[in-house]
Structure formats: structure tokens, C-alpha cells
Specification:
The protein has one domain (2-8, 28-83). It has a four-stranded mixed beta sheet. It is α+β, with helices and mostly antiparallel strands and 84 residues long. It has helices spanning 2-8, 14-24, 46-54, 58-61; strands at 25-34, 41-44, 63-70, 76-83.
Length: 84
């Protein structure tokens, strides 16, 4: 739920958002973004994904999280997203 909030919200304090992301995302995070119109997929690691969602954009707000998996430490280690 927190991740979905990041993706849909307006930026207020990007430094706080960055710190919160570091706490909920696993170091071995894998993100799969399915591109619109079956154009393929993009893959991101924790650093790349964090940089992309710290500052919300119009494109980010059009993305929908369809799968989130957590590890034993309750940190997110896999995310699947589709572009709408």
C-alpha cells in the first residue's frame, strides 16, 4: 500500500520519501514494468527504481502495480507493474 501511495502522490519532501523507500525495498529488488501496447518490458534494480519514483511524474501515475512479493524480512523484493 505504501508503494502505491508513492506512485500516486504529489512530492512534498523527496528526502523523506527516499529514506522510506530504502526501508521497505529489499537490496535485491527486481522490478518488471510491462510496456503499453505489448512493446516489451523494462527491468529495474533498487537504485534505478527508487530514483524513478522519488519524484512523481505523469507517466508514473499511469502505472499500476499488479504484483508485489515480500521476503522474510517483510521487505519488497519483486514488483510487477503495467503501464496504462
Amino acid at each position: 500500500m505504501m508503494l502505491k501511495g508513492f506512485m500516486k502522490s504529489d512530492i512534498k519532501d523527496w528526502q523523506t520519501r527516499k529514506e522510506q523507500l530504502q526501508m521497505i525495498l529489499a537490496d535485491d529488488l527486481e522490478v518488471l514494468v510491462m510496456l503499453k501496447d505489448d512493446l516489451g518490458a523494462e527491468y529495474f534494480n533498487k537504485k534505478e527504481f527508487s530514483e524513478r519514483i522519488i519524484i512523481p511524474s505523469v507517466a508514473l501515475k499511469r502505472m499500476k502495480v499488479v504484483d508485489i512479493q515480500s521476503n522474510k524480512e517483510n521487505k519488497i523484493h519483486f514488483i510487477r507493474i503495467i503501464q496504462e
